[in-house]
Design brief:
The complex is a heterodimer of chains A (528) and B (517).
Chain A: E1 2-8, H1 9-21, H2 24-45, H3 53-66, H4 83-92, H5 95-100, H6 102-127, H7 130-141, H8 144-149, H9 156-175, H10 180-194, H11 199-218, H12 222-236, H13 238-251, H14 256-259, H15 264-273, H16 283-298, H17 300-315, H18 322-329, H19 331-341, H20 371-384, H21 388-406, H22 413-420, H23 429-437, E2 442-444, E3 464-465, H24 472-478, E4 484-490, H25 494-500, H26 503-512, E5 513-518, E6 522-527
Parallel strand pairs in A: 2-3, 2-4
Antiparallel strand pairs in A: 4-6, 5-6
Helix pairs in contact in A: 2-6, 2-7, 3-4, 4-6, 6-7, 6-9, 6-20, 7-20, 9-10, 9-11, 10-11, 10-12, 11-12, 11-19, 16-17, 16-19, 17-20, 17-21
Chain B: H1 2-21, H2 48-63, H3 70-76, E1 80-83, E2 86-89, H4 94-107, H5 112-138, H6 143-155, H7 159-163, H8 169-188, H9 194-209, H10 211-216, H11 218-227, E3 229-234, E4 237-243, H12 250-268, E5 280-281, H13 296-306, H14 309-312, H15 318-326, H16 333-336, H17 341-353, H18 358-376, H19 393-399, H20 402-409, H21 414-436, H22 444-450, H23 456-465, H24 471-477, H25 483-516
Antiparallel strand pairs in B: 1-2, 1-5, 3-4
Helix pairs in contact in B: 1-5, 1-6, 2-3, 2-4, 4-5, 5-6, 5-8, 6-20, 6-25, 8-9, 8-11, 8-19, 9-12, 11-18, 15-18, 17-20, 18-19, 21-23, 21-25
Classes of the chains: A mainly alpha (528), B mainly alpha (517).
Transmembrane segments (chain A): 27-45, 65-83, 103-124, 131-151, 202-217, 229-246, 287-315, 327-352, 364-383, 392-413
Organism (chain A): Candidatus Roizmanbacteria bacterium RIFCSPHIGHO2_01_FULL_39_12c
GO molecular function (chain A): pentosyltransferase activity
Amino acid sequence: MNLSFSISVKTVNRIKSWIDRLPYPKLVFFISWILALIATNYYFYRDLIVAYGDAESHLNIAKRVIHSLTPGLAQLGGIWLPIPHILMVPFVYFDGLWRTGLAGSIVSGAAFIISSTFLYKLVYLLTKNKYASFIAFLVFASNLNILYLQATPMTELPLIAFFILSSYFFTKYILNEADTGSLIMAAFFGFCAVLTRYDGWFLILFEALTMILLYLRRRKDWKKTEGKLLLFATLAFFGVLLWMVWDLLILGDPFYFINSQFSARTQQQEWLRRGELPAFRNFPLALAYYAVTAMSNSGLFVFVIAIFGLGAFFGDKKNRSRFHISLILLVPFIFNVVTMFMGQSVIFIPHLTPVDFEWRLFNVRYGTLMIPGIALFFALAWFKAKQTGTKILILALFIGQFGLYLVGFSKIITLADGVEGLSRARRPDAELFMDEKYDYGLVLVDDYARTMSIIRTGIPMQNVIYIGTKPYWEESLVAPERYTRWIIMQKDDAVWDAIYDQPGVRSRLFKYFEKVYTSPNILIFRRI
Amino acid sequence: MKNFFAIVFVIFIGLLLYTSALRGEIGNPLVDKGMTKLSKATGPFESSHERAPYALLVSLVERGSFELTQDLANFASPDTVFSGEKYFIIFPPGVSLVAMPFYLLAKEYHLAQLSTYAGMTMFAILNLVLIYLIAKNIFRLSIGYAILSAMVFGFATTSWSFAASLYQHHLTVLLILISYYSVWKYALNMQKWLWTIVPWTVMGLSIWLDYPSVLLLIPVFLYLFLKSLKIYNAKKKLNIIFNFNAYLGILVFFALVGVHLYYNKVNFGSPTVLAQFLKRYDSSKVQDQAVQPPTKQTIEETIKKKSTFSNLFQENRIITGLYTLTVASDKGLFYFSPILILAILGIFTIYRKSNKYRLEAGILISVFLLNLFMYSSWSEPWGGWAFGPRYLIPAMAVMSVFPFIWLDRNNNKIRAKLITFVLFCYSSFISLLGVLTTTATPPKVEAVYLKIKYGFFLNWDYFMDGRSGSFVFNEFVSKHINLQQYFILIYIPLILIVFILLFIVPLLNRKQISKKI
């Protein structure tokens, strides 16, 4: 019993030619735009845009540049790099965009569209095949972790955009070393990456290293290489210099971002003290932690196929630049392994983190930085597959990946971290209290301790006294009644230590203020 | 004719070796009171996984009911669940239903338990034959290598331990292999639609045996789909033929599923409620055996908590699960059966050196990967107290062909043969150690807590103490020789056969060929 039908070869060819003629670059732009819109809309209505504690901090930093007791560029601070915040400034001007987090979504969404477009172009540069390029785009743009982060004010998407842009132009340069224009563009976007996240510093370092490796391959014209290296470094490394000068001028220490009490390194010391820094000085574990984090972010099937793609890319002996290009694409991997090994960063992921650790989900979003590379290698695996059956199988596994999410086998792990992990923003009852009771006046709060959300309480940013509002902050910690109508303190935060724990200041507190809210950890006072 | 004798040889070896390790004692346990002493270590009911299907079997035969009495529930505990105020076993009833004829056959002779276990051995022998047929007919291996493929699965993996007792694993393997082989037969001649009834029937039966095993059949159905579809170019047309014969068996599948849904409805109140999602009964935790079952509400709460797929399989367990199931010293597949490392080489060989059999190999590899990844992400990958990675028994079956594909494509180099032989000796030593002593070896996590040994180190202690579960040894041989001597009596002939098949038979074949030339 057979059901048979036939299509004329002409029709097949017509369909093929129609598919072939599709305007893929435009499609990439349009689809990524639509996906960004849908995902942002979805997370907006579920109140998940500002799920991360860091998400609000990014919004607030940008907001303070224009709206604060002491507005100005100095509000950008000296730990987190400034570009994501500078990009948000025009949008946080509008309170609605600031409070909802949409100001950050706009920036991340734009970065997502740019990333999608240039990832397509990057794969096309390597394969000259629009289908492979489109597949890379699909893998990247349909990644649920990317779609979540592009809806938030987090800094991963801006970095990914600059990383892809810089890698695209640098790859163009690798393929044609006479193309100085591309080298300058790579340096410019490297500069942007440097001022977006510290991962960018590794990117430009490896790009510079690759230029030297390219010279070593042919071993001639060192003068030319030297000139190009200087050209590249002048622009790309200028970001590093700029940041150090900034930290020196504003905070008095060019290495404030490393040495400060708010730096990542200082935070890791606490984990180390508790014996919960598993990858510290343990290279295999650092490697395993980041590989598993990248796997969980990209999806199990996609990750496994990408490994085959990487293998196939390395195995392609005709491509003399395969090593140099791979090196650039693997920079996020190298960066994260090195920083975990050195104890500069930490990832907790339930796949590997021991069950007796206090937290088993933290910072897993670092894995998203590998997604462009994974998408590219996935597409290369498809491109290099010789048999149609293998190509179909690869695509089937890509679709099957969504099935794993659908049945609950895999989680959108970056979202899970924001909702149930250590990265999540806490929502104490005190926040609801302030949302209801706040009337007017200045509020003294230790913003770094994240006692409560400012965007959710309706307090205008201009009315907040925090560590960055000199001299209000220092003076209020000694004489709280001078400016403040409201004081919010959390056990062991800076306000608690300076006011509640100091008998002299505490007596002033109770003289001028009444306690209007009490919980085991948070106290709120209002001027009598 | 050679083929026929080879199959007879496989059956003979299977019968001989499986019988030598068959676990049990004379009697009809649970009917003859006082037989529950068999629950002790090395006894035929040392694991609740053996007790539960046996309890249901007794209930079915003696009372004609799926519902267990309090005594049977206690016996099967903790693999027992509540539904309403009734007790059931946690597993699907397939194993007990299949074992019924064997039980009935020998009940009058007071050999019910032995006969029931021997029934499972029959299925294990069928698996050996099927592996032989797959290796010989599908992958075109020589008769010697095809026999060796069967022997690797049978006697160089921990599957041996489960061929001599009452577990579902050999039945699951049988269903996977038989469906795979029948699809291949169908592919040879698409008009022979009767072959296509088999995979659908198998799929339906799997639901009665072990729910996750249904997932293991996905690659086989993909194979069926691909084989039922033909695309070719002719006369400036692209022709697509879809053979409906491949899907005729779907009616059988629906019938079997329908009956299972009815079984769920009658016993658990709803067609979609599975026993595995009901509240568990553990007699050891209940002081008063007459304690009332929990209320309907608490049961429903348990169902809600447990009835999602995500609770059973989770990505975040996959790394530790993979480690546990592949290389860990308590359950690792390659730790217990390193002969299967050669299977990986076999897979590479087939994809690097040959264009043939890629699809057929791909389907078997998919079963292996699915099996491995599924149980790596399973909430409890160890399979409780069991010898080796018992959940990977289907993987062991499908992988056992590949070491000989590697050997065959490597032109039978002596070095490769020596490696194979050494690895076989090691793997079969471990397997025999397990089957002659106990299947109840704890996973490391529990063993460390209980301060006892785990993996085959525990079996070694039993072995040195002369404690065996083998019926033949305990009943007939132990009066004349000790367990170590009995071990050697089985082990030496086994590796001698392997030696002959690996080194001598190919030489004879070569001489025959040169004579013909």
